[in-house]
Amino acid sequence: PGDQILLKSGDTWTQQMTLQGTGTSGSHIIISSYGTGNRPAIVGNNTNAFHCITLTNGDYWDFSNFDLSACGYGIYCHYTTNGHNGLAFTNIYTHDSNDNNTNNSHDILVQCDRPSSTTGQYSINGITVTNCNSYQHGGTCFRAGDSGDSNLYPWAIENVYERNCKDLDDR
């Protein structure tokens, strides 16, 4: 808990970043930038299979200050178990990824496997998305839902707050 992964401002990576682990409510894991200059960039290979950043079953993670492009998902958070808490996304810019115009890509996707019951046990609770922008991405700036059939399970994801986020396309 309380760990930080900081990427140097102005630098560019072409590899996917795969993360796991858990912070605490008082000590989130921070993934962000350091230094001055442009946001650190992760550039994919223009396929829907490339996710710039993937987090699995993570609690209390804060993502900020990234430029993510040429990917299916800029940030993909996947939950296979219930009872997770705390994700924050701030100042994320995703662009130039449209999966050959199929509209299947998303800038930030939080997805859970079908919850095990309807007893009110959520998969992830407490998501904040602030100052995140997308351009020419072919999907949506932020999406949260289950990975089951087309029925969204309302108890799967709770307390989502989105502020000052823009799709800069003419979609």
Gross morphology:
globular
Backbone CA Rg? 15 Å
By DSSP (H or I, 4+ residues per run), the number of helices equals 0
Q: In percent, how helical is the residue content?
A: under 10%
User: Could you give the order of the helices and strands?
Assistant: EEEEEEEEEEEEE
Largest sheet: 13 strands, parallel
User: What percentage of amino acids are in beta strands?
Assistant: over 45%
- On the 0 to 100 scale, the average pLDDT is 81
Q: Unreliable stretches, pLDDT < 50, 5 or more residues? A: none
How is this structure best described in words?
- With 171 residues, this protein is mostly beta strands.
- It is 0% helix and 60% strand.
- Strands 1, 2, 3, 4, 5, 6, 7, 8, 9, 10, 11, 12 and 13 form a 13-stranded parallel beta sheet that branches.
In short:
The protein has 171 residues and is an all-beta fold. 0% of the residues lie in helices and 60% in strands.
Write the layout of secondary structure elements.
Layout: E1 4-8, E2 12-13, E3 17-22, E4 29-34, E5 41-59, E6 61-79, E7 84-95, E8 106-112, E9 124-130, E10 133-135, E11 140-146, E12 157-163, E13 166-167
Parallel strand pairs: 1-4, 2-5, 3-5, 4-6, 5-6, 6-7, 6-8, 7-9, 7-10, 8-11, 9-12, 10-13
What are the main properties of this structure?
171 residues; mainly beta; 13 strands; globular
